[in-house]
Amino acid sequence: MKRIIVPIIMSLVLLLMPVLAEAHPGRTDAKGGHYCRTNCAKWGLEDGEYHYHNGGSSNSKPAATAKPVVKPTAKPTAKPTATPVPAPALLLPKKQNVGTLQVYFFDVGQGDSTLIRTPNNQYVLIDGGNNDQGKNIVKYLNGLGVKTLDALVATHPDADHIGGLDDVLKALDVKSVYAPKVSHTTETYKDFLTAVKNEGRTIKSVTKGTTIPLTGVEAKFLAPIRSYGDNLNDWSAVLKVTYKNKSFLFTGDAEKVSENDMLADGMNLKADVLKVGHHGSSSSTSKAFVDAVKPQYAVISVGKNNYGHPDSGILTRLKNANTSVLRTDQKGTITAISDGNKITFTSTKGAK
């Protein structure tokens, strides 16, 4: 039996020798691997490549312990939000001494809002700027110590005149509200009506000859004289305020049609200070009207706008009439102070 097995074993050894010869020889080192010397390509190796034998297969030398992969900090996809620039502080007008007529033409941007303080400490507010100006007007009034308005005048339903009046009605005690008998369908106008109702007030209709009862000061409406259909500007309540020998004319947005009606009526339009109609638009302040008013001073309530206000032709017209022009976009809130014989001005900005 042994004679048979031994030859068989020898035969197998002889058969396997070529295969073993093909193998890449070399002893394993202390790490359990060695370098390939022969037939390296057959085993998917390069000559001299260090590798291990695992279960009869050849593997390249294992990579050194991998370093932890550190992903680069991702760049932000959007620029960091800039720190918001705070809005410029509201410049409040200085409260004047009791005993003079004071008129504060508030700086409300492209809009109108004017406070009258009588020598007997009665207050009349004409218009309230746009919706976004309501809180500023309340700040103006609070800064001047106003807690009660004897009268509030809404010259006409345009938003840049009545927008802030609902805030005023909510914040202060308003004894009476005056407005021309014309309505509008805007939410701003509805807010105004709702605020009047919520304060338990009704609107006193303004027509030519309507007066506001004030002590020592005459406050009479000169317009509207008649119905002006859909032209809201010509519906504007025009108020003339007289204290002793000095007077002020507040025209809202009254245009040439209303101006012509006042001229034709033959009323006394003479005034020392003219609040220029419709922010200095060419639609208002006709030459005939300026000639009748003969203002020594003209105040234009105006802000940044795309309407071309104030119109250069109107500015030239006033200059030719020897009228000094003061603008809220240049001087901020403008204050006129009168003792009944002279008028002086101050403002919150020093620009000319």
The neighbouring-strand order within the major sheet is 11-10-8-6-5-4-18-19
Q: From the helix content, strand content and strand pairing, which structural class follows? A: alpha/beta
Radius of gyration: 45 Å
Please give the largest β-sheet.
8 strands, mixed
Principal-axis shape: elongated
Count the beta strands: 19
Number of helical regions: 9
End-to-end Cα distance, whole Å, is: 130 Å
Would you list the SSEs in sequence order as H and E? Answer: HEEEEEEHEEHHEEHEEEEHEHEHEHEE
Low-confidence stretches: 16-23, 54-66
* Helix content range: 10-25%
Share of β-strand residues: 15-25%
Q: Please, what is the average pLDDT?
A: 87
Notes on the structure:
With 352 residues, the protein is an alpha/beta fold. The protein is 24% helix and 22% strand. It contains 9 helices and 19 strands. The strands form 4 sheets. An 8-stranded mixed β-sheet has the order 11-10-8-6-5-4-18-19, with no helix packed on it. Strands 12-13-14-15-16-17 form a 6-stranded mixed β-sheet. The protein has a 3-stranded antiparallel β-sheet with strand order 1-2-3, with no helix packed on it. Strand 16, helix 8 (312-320) and strand 17 form a beta-alpha-beta unit. Helix 2 crosses helix 4 and helix 4 (165-171) runs parallel beside helix 5. The protein starts with a helix and ends in a 5-residue tail after the last strand.
List the main descriptive attributes of the protein structure presented here:
352 residues; six-stranded mixed sheet; alpha/beta; eight-stranded mixed sheet
